[in-house]
Design goal:
681 residues; alpha/beta; Four Helix Bundle (Hemerythrin (Met), subunit A); 22 helices; 8 strands; binds guanosine-5'-diphosphate; binds magnesium ion
């Protein structure tokens, strides 16, 4: 079985890598009658003699023998705590220098390097539990053998099937032993070595009967016929070995173990094997190549190898899946920084590009859940801002009284013939001022959006930023700073847009309704002609000035007090709404209102058009154009590079781990494909 060792050891590496369940090699359990040679067969499989053997009931407790493959002493790497240990192995071998040793579960801290002592300990422990007089116990003895020459495998030696109680054995000894055996061999991951001595009747073999109970199809039962050398003269086991007596699917293998005499005279295992071969050559020449302990070991190896092969596809899948996972992980970690300047420029450029393309709408990661970047600005300009402006009533907040008051104030002490232009200006300016607030709000909204894009770019495009938290922070700071710097400039400009409108009321604007036309249309509504309007205006006004004055007086309102200026009066004491206006007043008001409306619409249109342009020019485009140079200018300073490009410790660690895992996985994959191609026989 030694040729399986390297395979298993290499697989072990794979398991350590992928963290998969270890391929559970089948436990090998020997069953058979008392003294049929079970312990002897096990021993020759292990290649060392350490099991108590002999006539009578020797094995009286199950012996669970766990073989552990360890590197030879010279190759045992020293772990950090100074112990000679296989890396990552759960078995520790504190400071053991010998090639092979054993430990018992029942005496934890004791290391047995002498195999005779191991045998004595088994005997002692058996007696401790079962007494000296042939008693039997189901409580197993656990023995671990560590050696570079063994396969990591578990073997179980069991007491033999017995019919008649002897010594301290209870009456139901047969039943007890049978149950004990069944409890081991019913495990489906157990290979049954069914032992029958050649000098007993194979047809009545208890071992084969038990095996059949749990493995009726014979898929995991291998029959071994021992003591070929002890057959009566003139008889041979040909029929049995050829399966003519009882067929066994996996095979029937004849062996010759060491006799009691050999044991007593300490015949070596090597010598025993040699003698076995010459015996087989002499007595079973046709079967010699398919018999003997060596062939038995090879057959066991083959069965174990089949088992391993069955497990490989799943293992391979696991390696493939993990490889993909770790490749993804490694990719997301990015390459370690080699050239700091280049990395910095690259990240900054990438961020700036991404920022700009989010505004342009050419970003790689198009947001689908909400408007963002340029699209959202478009929405702010046309929907939020545009609609707000459109919803402003040109005359809102302007009562008839306001208009009248303005007219009167503008007229001053003299009665006027025409509606004073200054009153129109006064009033229209008041309305125009109302455009400033929504315009400034528009700037604010775009500014907010520009800040939001920073977040958007950080989370989507520039994975690298997550690696360098300090750089990320600084980039956000610089961009925020740039935005903040541009805000007052843009606000000022927008404020000026309105101020410009206020600075000069251009009544010669081509779209402005001509005052004459307005009053004409107002008058014509009352059935007058355009030519009349000028004349009527003057005369009417003179006449109505009086009447309204009188009316106010007669109403006793302070509004007409001659001692106080009309302006003060007008502001202080509003005319009751219920007062009816004269026709003249009504007409004047209407004229002014129409003019205000006409002019206001011109200005509103212009503001609606120029605010977005201003915001784009002074804020958005400026930021777009200067983002990169601002970032480079502020961050690309040699003493800063080191600090900014410090990776987050998580990333560095993650990359290291992912890289070494990938390397291990590649090796594992290689090992698996090699093993799948290996022919061991
Ligand atoms: P177990 O009770 O089934 O474990 O049988 P053991 O392995 O203890 O062997 C019982 C006795 O049979 C021992 O004295 C062995 O030396 C002897 N024995 C086992 N196999 C053979 C064999 O193939 N040939 C000879 N001559 N003796 C054997
Ligand atoms: Mg035995």
């Amino acid at each position: 079985m030694e040729n399986l060792i390297p395979v298993i050891n290499r697989l072990q590496e794979v398991f350590l890598t992928v963290g998969a369940e270890v391929i559970h090699l089948p436990q090998i359990v020997v069953v058979g009658s008392q003294s049929s040679g079970k312990s002897s067969v096990l021993e020759s499989m292990v290649g060392r003699d350490f099991l108590p053997r002999g006539s009578g009931v020797v094995t009286r407790r199950p012996l669970v023998l766990q073989l552990v493959n360890v590197p030879p002493p010279g190759e045992r790497t020293l772990s950090e705590n100074g112990n000679g240990m296989k890396p990552n192995s759960q078995n520790s071998y504190p400071g053991i220098k010998t090639e092979e040793w054993g430990t018992f579960l029942h005496c934890k801290n004791q290391v047995f390097t002498d195999f005779d002592e191991i045998r004595q300990e088994i005997e002692k422990e058996t007696e401790r539990c079962t007494g000296a007089n042939k008693g039997i116990s189901a409580e197993p003895i656990h023995l671990k053998i560590f050696s570079p020459h063994v396969l990591s495998l578990t073997l179980v030696d069991l007491p033999g099937v017995t019919k008649v109680p002897v010594g301290d054995q209870p009456d139901d000894i047969e039943q007890q032993v049978r149950e004990m055996i069944l409890s081991y061999i019913s495990n489906p991951n157990c290979l049954i070595l069914s032992i029958t001595a050649a000098n007993t009747d194979m047809a009545t073999s208890e071992a084969l009967k038990l095996a059949r109970d749990v493995d009726p199809e014979g898929r995991r039962t291998l029959a071994v016929v021992t003591k070929l050398d002890l057959m009566d003269a003139g008889t041979d086991a040909m029929d049995v070995l050829l399966g003519r007596v009882i067929p066994v699917k996996l095979g029937i293998i004849g062996v010759v173990n060491r006799s009691q005499h050999d044991i007593n005279t300490q015949k070596s295992m090597a010598q025993a094997m040699q003698d076995e071969q010459s015996f087989l050559q002499r007595h079973y020449p046709s079967l010699a190549s398919r018999s003997g302990s060596r062939f038995l070991a090879r057959t066991l190896s083959r069965l174990l190898m089949h088992h391993i092969r069955d497990c490989l596809p799943e293992l391979k899948t696991r390696v493939t899946v993990l490889t993909a996972q770790y490749q993804g992980l490694l990719g997301s970690c990015g390459q370690p920084v080699q050239d700091q300047s280049a990395t910095m420029l690259q990240i900054v450029t990438k961020f700036a590009t991404e920022y700009c393309s989010t505004i342009e709408g050419t970003a790689r990661h198009i947001e689908t859940s909400e408007l963002c970047g340029g699209a959202r600005m478009c929405y702010i300009f046309h929907e939020t801002f545009g609609r707000t402006l459109e919803s402003i009533d040109p005359l809102s907040g302007l009562t008839t009284l306001d208009v009248l008051t303005a007219i009167r104030n503008a007229t001053g002490p003299r009665p006027a013939l025409f509606i004073p232009e200054i009153s129109f200006e006064l009033l229209v300016k008041r309305q125009i001022k109302r455009l400033e607030e929504p315009s400034l709000r528009c700037v604010e909204l775009v500014h907010e959006e520009l800040q939001r894009i920073i977040q958007h770019c950080s989370s989507y495009s520039t994975q690298e930023l997550l690696r360098f938290p300090k750089l990320h922070e600084s980039i956000v700071e610089v961009v925020t700073g740039l935005l903040r710097k541009r805000l007052p400039i843009t606000n000022e400009m927008v404020h000026n847009l309105v101020a410009i409108e206020l600075a000069y009321i251009n009544t010669k604007h081509p779209d402005f309704t001509d005052a004459a036309l307005v009053s004409a249309s107002v008058n014509s509504a009352q059935g007058e002609t355009l030519q009349d309007s000028g004349r009527r205006w003057k005369s009417d006004r003179a006449a109505e000035e009086k009447t309204s004055e009188e009316k106010v007086k007669s109403s006793g309102s302070a509004y007409s007090s001659p001692t106080r200026s009309p302006a003060v009066n007008l502001l202080d004491t509003p005319v009751p709404v219920s007062r009816r206006l004269t026709a003249r007043e009504q007409r004047d008001c209407e004229v002014i209102q129409r003019l205000i409306k006409s002019y206001f619409l011109i200005v509103r249109k212009s503001i609606q058009d120029s605010v977005p342009k201003t915001v784009m020019h002074f804020l958005v485009n400026h930021v777009k154009e200067h983002l990169q140079s601002e970032l480079v200018g502020q961050l690309y300073k040699l003493p800063l590079l080191q600090e900014l490009l410090t990776e987050s410790p998580d990333t560095a660690l993650q990359r290291r781990e992912a890289a070494s895992m990938l390397e291990a996985l590649q090796k594992a994959s290689h090992i698996i494909s090699e093993i799948r191609e290996t022919q061991l026989w």
